[in-house]
Amino acid sequence: MAYEAMFSSMGYTVLKTIDNYLEAKQILKEYQPDICTLDLRIRPTPGTSASLLTYPQICSLLTASPKTAICVMTEIDSTANIEVVLSAGVKGFFTKTF
To answer: Whose CA is closest to 23, among 5, 8, 38, 1?
Structure first.
């Protein structure tokens, strides 16, 4: 988990690393973290194939934890994706470099 080590080295406490949307929503609702980073491509539920986060899913995550600043990362460099996530209320968007 390169990102977990990176955030920990910057002084952030990493609560949990997850791999699906449903678990992300549960963690946000339970812990109400200050910051949440999500990959734009995430599994909707455990055991399914990854797909792009949708506008309603992002809104649902923000509703689960309204004070959390959600940042989305992706290897997909697309203006359309950036516009969708930012219009949903995401605070940041960055492209992975690997």
So the answer is: 38
With beta carbons less than 8 A apart as the criterion, state whether 25 and 60 touch.
Answer: yes
Number of other residues whose CB lies within 10 A of the CB of residue 61: 23
CA–CA gap between residue 70 and residue 27 (Å, rounded): 13
Q: How, if at all, do strands 92-95 and 69-74 pair? A: parallel
pLDDT at residue 51 greater than cutoff 90: no
Structure tokens at 33: 């973290």
* Cβ neighbours, 10 Å, residue 66: 9
- pTM of the model as a whole: 0.81
